User: Fold these one by one.
Assistant:
Number 1:
Amino acid sequence: MARLATPTIALLTDFGTAGWYVACLKAVILRICPQAHVVDISHEIPPQDIPVGALTLAAAASWFPAKTVFVGVVDPGVGTSRRLLAAQADAYRFVGPDNGLLGLVLARAKRLSLVHLTNPRYWLPETSQTFQGRDIMAPVAAHLARGCPLRRLGVPVNRYQSLRLPPLQREGKSIRGCILYTDSFGNLITNLPVSLVADHAPVQVRYRRMPVRVVSSYAEGRDGELVALCGSSGYLELAIRNGSAAWRYQARRDEPVSVSRS
Amino acid sequence: MARLATPTIALLTDFGTAGWYVACLKAVILRICPQAHVVDISHEIPPQDIPVGALTLAAAASWFPAKTVFVGVVDPGVGTSRRLLAAQADAYRFVGPDNGLLGLVLARAKRLSLVHLTNPRYWLPETSQTFQGRDIMAPVAAHLARGCPLRRLGVPVNRYQSLRLPPLQREGKSIRGCILYTDSFGNLITNLPVSLVADHAPVQVRYRRMPVRVVSSYAEGRDGELVALCGSSGYLELAIRNGSAAWRYQARRDEPVSVSRS
Amino acid sequence: MARLATPTIALLTDFGTAGWYVACLKAVILRICPQAHVVDISHEIPPQDIPVGALTLAAAASWFPAKTVFVGVVDPGVGTSRRLLAAQADAYRFVGPDNGLLGLVLARAKRLSLVHLTNPRYWLPETSQTFQGRDIMAPVAAHLARGCPLRRLGVPVNRYQSLRLPPLQREGKSIRGCILYTDSFGNLITNLPVSLVADHAPVQVRYRRMPVRVVSSYAEGRDGELVALCGSSGYLELAIRNGSAAWRYQARRDEPVSVSRS
């Protein structure tokens, strides 16, 4: 693999793409690290929706090259005393507010170093109370991408705000999870790991008391049939072939889905 | 022109931009080919809409630099027996499912080589049944961009799934086409080539039995007037100045539009 | 700071991102200047909305690196006699139609050179009447990014179409401005400079005759409370914590907002 002459910086925000906020992040990054390759993960996290932001970041991050710097800005507490963090988590670096947004990616790290961003030398000269993504997080990420060591950015800390996803519950022979996320196709992604169905032992999946047939590709579903399958992020998902399960069932986040040995 | 030290990889999908699917494609590409310049054509192809995907790809592709690698993922058959293809078509490379999505760009190629992607050496080590864009197509595209010869990716094939656009019909002195696509301004793009009106011989354009005045720029239209003009993609289009013809007429794909010598 | 081996070209249009128009701009740029780093400011300017385009460009531009080339295409007069311009404005270059879109960024320049784009040597070989962003503006921007001097692009001109934002009005002890823009969070950005409230002298902000409490961060607002604060672009804005002021008040552009010394 070629040397990373172009360090990757990946962005995740709830800014939307109509206005100038995302461009400000990129502009600030390019001033400091012109050779950076800036990649958008998503800017359409629902405003202030930390759990969806955390899930999206965690689902995307592990596919990126080693040394990628991730910047997450879903930050309803901007300008308050909530801390800003930078982390080295295994081969990746993360920058974001300490509000749970980084909770999932940091929790799965085997090796983790954390700093509280306190060194203004790596920020813009003037910082606002309303856009610290631009004023602090983007410049810090760009400095990391240029090779600045984590420890220079502030003081080491040991704790970060975790994010607790709804836990799986065992009920007799069945395991109950729930819907975590609806994707752009209307597929319903659950918190049930695919290992629960992947060993080919017969299982029964249920949603709203309906049995849901387990298939191995979207196209195996019949017209309008709700099916369950091993989703690409490692979780069981419910889907309708060439249709939207979310729309058809007006599905809601946190609704239960269960898997039982039959 | 400078040497393409930064090979271009252009992406077209129906993934939307809210979730992490597009980021996964880019992340996988950058792991394999960090110097790639990844350009989004569109990620807002309507879900599973192969004809709109094919049109959009064909409208964009010929403007790109030689050697660009295009990845098209509108793939309702993911995980079934439909084949994945890579093609060298004149100066461009294309990667996508063999379902018609590549039908227009391959049909116009003067020189064409096709392979069925069968060599897992150029895929991710593990592949899913639900996201072969990430697991097979993105890595293959990145290897092509790095210089991997097409023939190594699989076995040569001679046929691909074509895509038949609605044909033009001659009716006496008139030629009848139809609406193919509505753009973001609400302009109605037809399948009638601009050569039918571009030679300045007087013609009459009709839509829903109304005569439509032919103009040469959007601004020539009067308030609310439907006009016809030579669109930038080489086809006649219907438009309303500073308005949306699609909305005003609740226009539908496939509706007839005719041109006749007067 | 590293040498700009990758010149930045920043794009702002009203094209939307579903179709192929943005991709055409990028493709043409990459043909001429493959090493360019192309950054999207926004492609979701409301169709033909020159004031919103001008505001968005002005809000984003000053954060970019020196030498950035900006291309603005909100161009209802495409194909008519309206001129296309390129400008050197302090450290930046701008390319766009002479219709007010560049009005704000050019007005604040201390040093300004302008040319009317008349030299077809720097355009695509064939140009349409309907997509001069692709045929003229994108290639001109790419040539600028490669180092082509401004003066070669056409004939010098002295005037450009200005854009007049609604002026502030003094009424006794109060200054009346208005809402200019609604951002993606539903925050209402006014034309009242933050200097009016930033010196900590007590002031009263009013919107629809309601007094609006001035706070220093979004999170200081109480549930559902409309607050005023110093926005990140240098203007007073009205906001609701974790909510949308625009939606709650069905706010309209140009509605008055006033600040008075109490």
Note: Chain B touches chain C through 41 residues (CB under 8 Å).
Number 2:
Amino acid sequence: VTRITLLTDFGTRDGYVAAMKGVIAGIAADALVEDAGHDLPAGDVTAAAHALAAYWLLYPAGAIHVVVVDPGVGTARRALAVRAAGRFLVGPDNGCLSPALATDPAAEVVAIESQLYLRSSVSATFHGRDVFAPAAAHLARGVVLGELGPAVADPSRLEGRQPRPTARGLIGEVVHIDRFGNLITNIPGGALAPGHFIQIAGHGPIPVVRTYGDVATGELVALVGSSGFVEIAVASGDAAARLAAERGCAVVLAG
Amino acid sequence: VTRITLLTDFGTRDGYVAAMKGVIAGIAADALVEDAGHDLPAGDVTAAAHALAAYWLLYPAGAIHVVVVDPGVGTARRALAVRAAGRFLVGPDNGCLSPALATDPAAEVVAIESQLYLRSSVSATFHGRDVFAPAAAHLARGVVLGELGPAVADPSRLEGRQPRPTARGLIGEVVHIDRFGNLITNIPGGALAPGHFIQIAGHGPIPVVRTYGDVATGELVALVGSSGFVEIAVASGDAAARLAAERGCAVVLAG
Amino acid sequence: VTRITLLTDFGTRDGYVAAMKGVIAGIAADALVEDAGHDLPAGDVTAAAHALAAYWLLYPAGAIHVVVVDPGVGTARRALAVRAAGRFLVGPDNGCLSPALATDPAAEVVAIESQLYLRSSVSATFHGRDVFAPAAAHLARGVVLGELGPAVADPSRLEGRQPRPTARGLIGEVVHIDRFGNLITNIPGGALAPGHFIQIAGHGPIPVVRTYGDVATGELVALVGSSGFVEIAVASGDAAARLAAERGCAVVLAG
């Protein structure tokens, strides 16, 4: 069985997600479609890339990951299909596939252009249905990546900033706010040492703990999250709301 | 493999959707269940029909589409099973299956009444679990449509209004507002000609473009959407919020 | 085919749910993963148990139900795997699996501890990915429950209160508020008799009807809901909002 995952900002109150699933079913009758999520903030390519990073490589080789967060749909932006670390990825050329491109420097990237693998009529506003779903389904049927279109040498990549050492400590930033209000930073967990603490937006020192339940409900803590980076959380609470924090807020690791 | 899609207004914070999936699994062990969406506005039959229209025919023949937006559950309203264009549809007789009935004038329609294909005890408030899920699962197992119950000659249909020509131009209306805040109208894309523009609620002339990305972020535009009808959008924004528009708002195509 | 259901409070705008699905796909290539729901209120174990109760036993024997609402992740709370009534359940030892434990007094319960069936590195904050998903996938592959770890004699159970008879009538409480705003109580439907009515929070007598559509839109009614308990609803409306009711509110059945 080949699994195809779908990550979009389509929500689940219109028929857009099911339209993609219907197209896939019509081409690759045996493929298993799994929802990665459809509630990404509208047009938020950075959030899409962050979500994708959490799962694409956990799927076994052969899995096909479709990402459609596509504010540039219908413009000259290319439609990409990628083979990275044995997995396939399909989505617009706007940086949403960055995690796979960054992980596998030998990733093959093509622009989806062959008429054979598109819907017969391609709309200007719904490439999820007309371009990405059919491309993914054809890959599931065994079509070779290079058949979809010409190689692309310069796919878009989101440039993640690295934390920088300063006299005050290591200065990073919030790169994602998750559903629980946890603030995920770009500071690698390996940078933490005993005695270190975290500061953000005038708050701190925030103590570093191992897990949420190590402190009383409502306390502000820092810990190494599931992706290996430092995150700021409130035990049984919402750190983003508490701190009125946004993506891009500076975070300092000191000690 | 037979695919069964589920479209409901049940949300995904109760166990209602999974109850339907469990019933299906118990009857049709090999069926693949795919979520079409569960976040329809509560009781909004019109929104259900609009969502269904986007995908039911994209699935291959043999697919089974279940729609449960059912404010009349437990009353005298019938439970329907339909065969249209080779696909099956199951849902309450309240108009939610209108897209299939409109597309295939030769659609077969029956009322689900045979005790053989219902749960042994049918509640008054959850026909998704007790009537529609088992009917869909039995269809997936190969039960013939007519076995489910007697033919129905007069299934409910939502009466979509047609746009009408006037001295000011073609007057249509907003028939759906999607997750992005795009206003989908009942004006067919084919009615557009060069030089035409759109007016709504005192706004306009709104220019017609090919896709969202053809204008700067924040601009109000009209375009032919993915279902072939004119829609009004804000590039990287929310037209419904900007215009305080609702379903039923008049839209004028002039030029 | 073995079905694995997932019920979490992860939402669907991060990659957390898909991370679990990827781990499962890597271990049990043929398992079918079905979403039960991911929009539970964050950390709400009671809501998780209530949702689980609606579907776990509707799935056929052999199904595997994963529940991850886990405010104590990474602390000393155990990770459980359960075999009850022929179904399997996997989740934290915080009461979320109570419905299965209550239904089958002979349920087998083990603590998931064997390194063989965990991810090679277990994070302190994401046992959905590192403990529960792999355990479920190994069960789907046929691993015997007892292989996962030692037997547990005292799994956590949520103590549901029973309604109590008083001079005013039978006094129960609201145990769940669903997506429609219906107030589900702990008063069994069998306690209702002709002439009975319901009171809550100074409202009442609220008449008992058979289904929502038996009264005009906007009327407050009581009825026996799909789980067999009395619930309070507003026809085509939201009873929780109307009554400003919360879980735990007292409800009186009198007559």
Note: The interface with chain A takes residues 1, 3, 5, 7, 32, 34-41, 47, 50-60, 63, 176, 178-180, 210-214, 223-226, 236, 238 of chain B (CB under 8 Å).
